[in-house]
Design a protein that fits this description.
Chain lengths: 324, 539
């Protein structure tokens, strides 16, 4: 499944960005550039060749693990992905886990209190949170917790300046644990609080609604009513019936949310100076840095495919009726 | 810096409010026991917020990346530099003087064609290698091989081959231009930077003889500052170079923090976490004026804001229409409302302070009646519709466009303001398909010959108007081989007379460069090329 999806996505992306107005070469040449300089620069990046030839060369490189060189920086794209992607994955993974946990708890709570005040409050709160633009929410959190209350770090990136750390995986949490660097670990966690919260708040609502709806469906099912009528304990009902069956539906939605988080973290990254994968791609898009945009789309598409594959496997494990 | 104090108090009491927040966040993420420490520790050190990381460390191959070029201006060794002068109560670069930096001397022959550079003896790169004439030669050979930035600019002064740069002895290099040029000093101030050739040769390979791969990833040092630390995407730490041959930089350590969002740069300055916020909008800067602990340094600048008209597209192919347009621009209102008075009225396409500037270059003022009369004479008495393209997100450009649009409506001209993203804007500029647009220009070389080369001759990269006047081209070619001051001044005057008749641009304003800094930061010298020189800063 992965290969045909990626080939299709790569062709579509390759053509689309070349149809868009904007010439990457014009963004990088100096003001003294002559038409000859511009053509020479275009040739240096292979942009003077016919499109099928460009695409063929690009895909041949991708198969070898070479995504080309960034037009703006001249550096290999794969190297920049290695720098940027772990930063975003760390942020997204924590935001995802937080939102998943919160949505299960809140969804079950709302279902168990369906039609009552707790249900209404949790649903409305989640809906409001879901309606907030993430950049706005991020800025508000910065204003409140950094500018006014002074209890959160400024939006200066992933770690306080002046702290040395060693890069192994690119995830500051993992690397600081591996290298036994508690100062870096604390600072990294410190800087993760607000961006993770921002990401989690934004995506909690759809997952929570799904959990609530599934739980209510389970609670209306014959098997649940039979168990209830037989006088099974509340814990057994919750964990043995409601939670287990409710969870069957969560993986697919969670995969969708995870994919959206990876693709949509760019605004949160910008607000918190995160310098992650999304922010890198946005800059690439603005300057029409073709290799950067193509790599971003391929990597994001791969994540979607892998996330849905994992979701299918998890769903099959939770529900024996489903086969992958 | 209140923020610093609060952290220090916290240390004494064991638990800060910030730490309480982390413990109480309920996220299972944070158990912190120490403050973040993300602030400057003293006035020997400055923290500066920059909007983006640099694209790479190799000057020869760097894309047109102003952050990267600015950082390199401070950490690469440059042989010569402009002097400094006072202007309007501010310190600006004096483009009429040249100061040897790593050079001991820089002189030309009587004709201005052969230039001799003597390198200071005993200056060492951070690697311990001595800087010699061989480094200069190797660096310029590399530049010609790269066929990129330096090689492109060198063409303007008749340097097109590596053989024109010769080592005379270990400390002397000779540049032999194909023709004398009045721009030689200016161009060499841009281009005469030097690599540590012995160091780079260690990283060269058969496939990469100029060590491009290594130089792109690894910071080069040896200028006024050395790069002490670089964390990609986060910060660049510069430390004063003890081997810098002129006055040592007053600020010994500078942290350049990458903060992409302007709102965050402003906030961090207000909170005292940084000392200088670069790249803020006019509106943010105006809001910061008068705030406690913040000062705004204001300098006259050579940046100019103009509105090229597509001279190949009706109705702007008609000079009468272009003249009419020049009378519908509310010049004073733009200075007052867009720049809050912190700008000068432009009076020629040749920027103010550029030698040879004359108000005769733009004899127009806001006068709707004259505009209507000219439109009638052009056969467009009923006006017309068009659009003004601006860079999306550039508040000053958008506000100027709105003012022009409102004023033009009084003459029956309906102008729609169209924000465009950078990629689309560059493309449409190149295609000359924008009837009207607002652009900001800053000539790296303060000379009309250079202005003509890049903006007002047919092959000029910034010739957004598609301006093509054979006499202007002829004058440019004459200037290219004329060093006599009187003759050049005569040609400068003629250029401005032609521009006044042709009106390729509407010249809107020449805004001051305003820089918000924490109180006590001083010494800013306004660079002609927009690339900050940190060595002059004091705190």
């Amino acid at each position: 499944m992965l290969a045909p999806v990626l080939v299709g996505v790569s062709i579509f992306c390759f053509l689309l960005i070349r149809v868009l107005p904007g010439d990457p070469v014009l963004a990088i040449v100096p003001e003294t550039a002559t038409p000859e300089d511009i053509e020479r620069t275009r040739a240096r990046y292979g942009l003077d060749r016919p499109l099928p030839e460009q695409y063929g060369a690009y895909m041949a490189g991708v198969i070898r693990g070479d995504f080309g060189d960034s037009i703006r920086t001249g550096r290999p794209v794969v190297e920049q992905i290695g720098e940027r992607l772990p930063r975003t994955l760390e942020l997204v993974a924590l935001g995802f886990l937080l939102s998943l946990g919160a949505s299960i708890v809140l969804g079950l709570f709302a279902a168990l209190h369906a039609g009552r005040l707790g249900d209404h409050v949790s649903r409305v709160t989640a809906l409001v949170a879901n309606s907030l633009p993430e950049f706005w929410l991020g800025l508000v959190l910065i204003l409140v917790f950094f500018a006014i209350l002074d209890i959160a770090p400024g939006p200066t990136g992933r770690i306080a300046t002046g702290i040395d750390y060693e890069i192994i995986t690119g995830s500051l949490i993992v690397d600081s644990i591996f290298t036994g660097n508690p100062r870096a670990l604390v600072s990294a966690l410190h800087h993760l609080v607000l961006p993770v919260l921002t990401l989690a708040v934004i995506v909690v609502a759809p997952m929570m609604r799904s959990v609530r709806a599934s739980a209510l469906e389970v609670m209306r099912s014959d098997s649940y009513r039979c168990a209830l009528a037989h006088g099974l304990g509340a814990k057994t009902l919750l964990f043995g019936y409601v939670l287990r069956e409710t969870m069957v539906r969560v993986p697919v939605l969670a995969a969708l949310v995870l994919g959206n988080l990876i693709g949509g973290s760019v605004l949160v990254e910008t607000v918190f100076s995160w310098q992650g994968f999304g922010q890198w791609a946005l800059r690439g898009l603005l300057l029409r840095d073709y290799p950067v945009i193509q790599a971003y789309v391929l990597v994001t598409a791969s994540f979607y495919v892998v996330a849905f594959l994992v979701a299918d496997i998890v769903q099959a494990a939770l529900d024996p009726r489903i086969r992958v | 810096m209140d923020h610093k104090n609060s952290d220090r108090i916290g240390e004494r009491h064991g638990l800060t409010r910030r730490q309480l927040f982390e413990l109480g966040a309920g996220l299972g993420l944070v158990l912190t026991l120490t403050p973040s420490g993300s602030f400057a520790e003293g006035r020997e050190e400055l923290a500066i917020a920059i909007p983006a990381d640099l694209g790479g460390w190799d000057h020869d191959y760097l894309a047109f990346d102003l952050v990267g070029l600015a950082v390199m201006k401070n950490c690469y060794p440059f042989m010569i530099e402009y002097g400094v002068k006072e202007q309007g109560g501010a310190r600006v670069m004096d483009t009429g003087t040249v100061e040897p930096v790593f050079a001991e001397s820089w002189e030309s022959d009587a004709e201005g064609k052969v230039w001799t550079l003597k390198v200071r003896k005993g200056v060492k790169f951070p690697s311990g290698n001595e800087m010699t004439a061989h480094d200069v030669k190797w660096s310029k050979d590399r530049a010609f091989a790269a066929k990129a930035n330096v090689a492109g600019v060198y063409r303007l002064i008749g340097l097109s081959e590596a053989s024109q740069v010769e080592v005379v002895d270990d400390y002397t290099v000779r540049f032999t231009q194909s023709q004398p040029s009045d721009l030689s000093n200016h161009i060499q101030i841009i281009c005469l930077f030097v690599y540590d050739s012995e160091e780079l040769k260690k990283h060269a390979t058969a496939d990469d003889p100029w060590a491009k791969d290594w130089a792109t990833k690894n910071p080069q040092s040896g200028g006024a500052y050395n790069v002490a630390d670089y964390k990609a995407g986060q910060e660049i730490v510069l430390e004063a170079n003890p081997s810098f041959p002129l006055d040592a930089p007053r600020v010994k350590r500078v942290k350049l923090q990458v903060i992409p969002a302007p709102a965050n740069r402003r906030l961090l300055l207000e909170k005292g976490e940084i000392d200088i916020a670069l790249g803020l909008s006019r509106r943010d800067i105006d809001d910061l004026r008068g705030k406690s602990g913040i000062e705004v340094i204001s300098s006259p600048s050579n940046e100019f804001v103009f509105m090229p008209m597509a001279m190949g597209t009706p109705p702007f192919d008609n000079p009468l229409v272009r003249r009419a347009m020049a009378h519908v621009v509310p010049y004073d209102a733009i200075v007052a409302n867009v720049y809050n008075g912190n700008a000068r009225r432009s009076t020629s396409p040749v920027p103010l302070d550029m030698p040879g500037h004359s108000p005769a270059g733009y004899p127009f003022g806001f006068d709707i009646d004259k505009a209507k009369a000219l439109l009638a004479e052009a056969g467009t008495a009923d006006g017309f519709e068009s659009e003004i393209a601006v860079l999306a997100g550039d508040v000053a450009q958008e506000r100027a466009a709105v003012l022009v649009s409102s004023a033009a409506a009084q003459a029956g001209i309906e102008l729609k303001v169209t924000p465009l993203d950078p990629g689309t804007l560059f493309q449409r500029r190149s295609e000359k398909t924008l009837p009207l647009q607002i652009a900001n220009g800053q000539m790296w070389v303060n000379d009309i010959e250079y202005l003509l080369a890049v903006c007002l001759t047919p092959t000029g990269f910034l010739n957004y108007a598609g301006y093509d006047n054979p006499r202007i081209v002829e004058i440019f070619q004459t200037l290219n081989r004329t060093s006599d001051k009187a003759a050049r001044n005569t040609l400068f005057a003629e250029v401005q007379g032609i521009l006044a008749a042709d009106v390729p641009w509407l010249v809107l304003a020449q805004p001051h460069f305003d820089l918000p800094v924490s109180a006590g930061v001083s010494g800013w010298v306004q660079p002609v090329d927009g690339l900050f020189r940190l060595r002059y800063l004091d705190a």
